[in-house]
Amino acid sequence: MKHYNPVLESVSPDIGSSFTCLRYSRNENIKTNFWHYHPEIELIFVFGGSGKRQIGSNISYFTDGDLILIGSNLPHCGMTNENTKNEYEVVIQFSMDFLGPQFWKAPEMIRISSLLEKAKSGIVYGERVKKALKSRIDALTEASSLTKLMILVEILDELSQTQDYKIMNASKYYLQTQKEDNDRISVIFNYVKDNFKEQIALETVAELSNMTVPSFCRYFKKITNKTFTQFVNEYRITHSLKLLAEQPMSITEVCFDSGFNNFSYFNKTFKEYTKKSPSQYRKEFSNVIA
């Protein structure tokens, strides 16, 4: 049995810059595909490709690249791995005070300051924003000195004005504020990540948390605003979405490969999460690709 703690990732600004901006070719950034957190705010742009993302207690699937803003100390897994098939990935990281503690308090920065507060729950942006910002994100990776800084502020300002986004974690989610909670819940998240294809007993995860089953259930709901069963089902359904979209497997095979041992329960749960049946989802996804 594996036991994991979230890794506190150390982030160093680029030479000659007050923040970090890295561009990775396909598969180059798979080392971050583990549960980690850092005090720096992180903007991740994935060009092309599809895969699973886990930001806090939110597990979801992206189909044509991604644009995510992750707040300070919000635990997450890397967006890409060897199966993502993205063209490239850009990762921008900066601390809240990288321009001095008073910078975000300036009247001109109020919108961006509010954006960074929202990012504590994780923000995912829609297709329109991804397309609109691609050229500026690309320019950021090539720029240097003051130009680089100005482009970053422009990007953040654009993100602060758009309505084309979703908050990833419910407002009650406060895992990022408590290190003890962070460590404990991350053991559970990693256990689910590694074992979701098997049956997971409540007694097992309660024991990992050094709690009784009733105490664990109350604790998990308080931290994530989800029951443990909801969380595991969400992880399994997200995996099934990826398989339905990318693999020539039968729906029955997808069901069992995603950790469900009952086909009718899989269908029922899938419909609850997606508002459509697995066959409808696959058909619609195939039509979009075509």
UniProtKB/TrEMBL annotation:
PROSITE patterns: HTH_ARAC_FAMILY_1 (PS00041), HTH_ARAC_FAMILY_2 (PS01124)
Keyword set, alphabetical order: DNA-binding, Transcription, Transcription regulation
Superkingdom of source: Bacteria
InterPro entries: Homeodomain-like_sf, HTH_AraC, HTH_AraC-typ_CS, RmlC-like_jellyroll, RmlC_Cupin_sf, Tscrpt_reg_AraC-type_HTH
SUPFAM superfamilies assigned: Homeodomain-like (SSF46689), RmlC-like cupins (SSF51182)
Gene3D superfamilies given in the database record: Homeodomain-like, Jelly Rolls
Coiled-coil segments on the chain, per record: none
Annotated HTH araC/xylS-type domain residues: 186-284
A single MF term (Gene Ontology): DNA-binding transcription factor activity
Name this polypeptide is given: Transcriptional regulator, AraC family
Organism: Epilithonimonas hungarica
